[in-house]
Specification:
Layout (H helix, E strand, L loop, with lengths): L3 H12 L10 H16 L16 E2 L14 E5 L5 E3 L2 E3 L1 H13 L6 E5 L5 H13 L5 E3 L2 E2 L1
Parallel strand pairs: 1-7, 2-5, 5-6
Antiparallel strand pairs: 2-3, 3-4
């Protein structure tokens, strides 16, 4: 028996696609995760290439030292465990004087900037200053944080 509803069902069945529409979002999610990791890696607080000075000593009467930010500035870092770094290179105390003298001969400024950790032992910082004095360096500035 024929009915208009049967014809309508056949016509509608021909219009429907046999495949199911599916939008795969996994590649999109993978790209988003990759970009997230890239952006977060720029905000990692620890820089493994530089010596870590956790706490600079605080001072309320410090002068600005704009020369300390120059690329050719001689910066010496004394960490709380007594390690000494010239720029980003760790070195022994006996090597410090000749290394600073060679940096000055290569054109660096005659002034040395020392950033010592607030919890570093005074004797470690005194040894660095004594070694610089033996090398003939008289212009020494200590970097501090504003109070």
């Amino acid at each position: 028996m024929w009915s208009p509803s049967q014809v309508a069902e056949k016509r509608e069945g021909k219009r429907k696609s046999g495949t199911f529409l599916f939008l795969n979002l996994w590649p999109f999610a993978a790209i988003l995760m990759f970009l997230l990791l890239i952006f977060l890696s720029n905000y990692v607080p620890i820089d493994f290439h530089r010596p870590a000075v956790a706490d600079l000593p605080k001072s309320s009467s410090a002068d600005q030292q704009p020369g300390a930010r120059r690329e050719d500035a001689i910066r010496i870092t004394v960490t709380r465990d007594g390690a000494v770094y010239l720029g980003q290179t760790g070195m022994q105390l006996q090597e410090l004087g000749p290394a600073v003298q060679s940096a000055i001969r290569e054109g660096a400024d005659n002034k040395v900037y020392i950033s010592a950790d607030a919890h570093a032992k005074n004797i470690d910082v005194e040894r660095v200053v004594d070694e610089l004095g033996r090398a003939g360096i008289t212009q020494i500035s200590f970097l501090t944080a504003q109070q």
